[in-house]
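User: Can you write out an input/output pair for a complex, sequences first and structure second?

Assistant: Here is one pair. Inputs:
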Amino acid sequence: MDGYYAFMLVATALVLMMTVPALALFYGGMSRSKSVLNMMMMSYGAFAIAAIVFVLWGWSEGWGGDGAGNADGKILNSPFDMFGLDGVSHINYIYVLFQLTFAAITVALISGAIADRVKMSSWFVFVPIWLTVCYFPIAHNVWAGGWLAQQLAKGSTFAQDYAGGTVVHINAGIAGGILALVIGRRVGFMKDPMRPHNLTLTMIGAGLLWFGWYGFNVGSIVFLPDNLADADLFSAQFQGETGVTFMNTTIATCAAMLGWLLMERILHGKATSLGAASGIVAGLVAITPSCGAVDLYGAIAIGAAAGILCAAAVGLKFKLKLDDSLDVVGVHLVGGLVGTLLIGFLSTSEAPGGIDGLFYGGGLSSLGDQTLAALFTVVWTGVLTTVIALAIKYTIGWRVDEEAEVEGIDFDQHGETAYDLHLSTSSAGASGVLAASTVAPATEGANA
Amino acid sequence: MKLVTAVIKPHKWEDVREALETFGVTGMTVSEVSGYGRQKGHTEVYRGAEYDIALVPKIRIEIVVDDGDAEDVVGIVVKTAQTGRIGDGKVWVSPVETVVRVRTGDRDSAAL
């Protein structure tokens, strides 16, 4: 048990790193140079808000037990019963923290759909409301023994979502698409070039996401009740299962990267670095729900399918004229659906999940469960995110004014700019370190 | 005196500088610029979206020389910067009325 506890400390810190800074770097590099700080701040800010909300009422609303879900079979759980972690033992804090980091990255993922144009204040209002209305209820229903999980478990199989295909990726993907629709396109979308300003940041971010994802997937192990009581059985499940999830996470990601690059080579003539970074994330997204459900070949198939389908899906936004700026729909919704639904075909009783899918003689039961879990998430979050988005639009408003957006949201919202590359405006180049340090802050802010 | 301005491909800049130094040109002003001519930029693809990048990076060299040297300098730049492919750049010569060396106040040829 001590080994598992130490492992959870590490896994939790790894998932924290996925938002701060991995996702911020991944998204920041893809945004324009005048809005990179705002893009990164949306992730950093989301994490801070999500953490506070989570310990106050998120755990109670989502899980409602002492270190685990309360399995009450209800659609909604009370946010007040365990407010402020009332009733959670200190020894179980780490499980709360582990789940906290998932809530934070899920809401941070949404920000990629609405890059470059949203007021920080409106984002800070959206984050806690969305978590409360969409994230915690879905988490309760899928992971904590809520209504959906218990309904689907009545058949011969149950819905498998090892680390968040529905709760995290389909959830964030559908929310991102709806926000992009309600908030509207950026000024100059499909007219001005909006190419990524620094793909080295994006490559670093994708690499750190991959690294952190081992905490995300492998750390999501749930022990069978019998194994919790017996030290040998516990070790056997721990060591047997983490090897599988680690392996599947690795090879699915490799297959997805290659799949995306192959698509690009065929469609556009060149394999790109942004394609590699995107393929990594698409593969990680798709293997998230399925890492405990499939064998080696299943993982390769899911990864390759995610890489190919997501690479095709990211082009759709131009046909739909939907400014999902950094492809939250194309990568997270599509990748999440690929991983969640393919479990119905590729799940095998050889894997820790112990369920045979359609291709392994298990019939349609698993596919049915997976489809219903995905549908539940799409409908729930689709409807409620629309309500939240419209409510904010017609009260405090979402967007910075057009001039601020064109001039650069970094300066408008934060009073900063990311890069100081021109000698004439650089404080060091113009007047030296000593002089720069004596300049009144207001002056430097305006000129930097 | 003449001002020779050359806009060339960035990877040819080091060759041009060496050739001019060998000829005896002692100083110049160099800037990184962007623009386009018949080359008309290029296309880049990000996640399947094609972007026409209209402006191409170039190096602009400005040299002030005596009237008699202008043609030679132009010849050296053209010879060293040429690849024969589209986008090699342009060189032009314009008259200069006066040059003053800031340190000494020397004028015209003495200031070069």
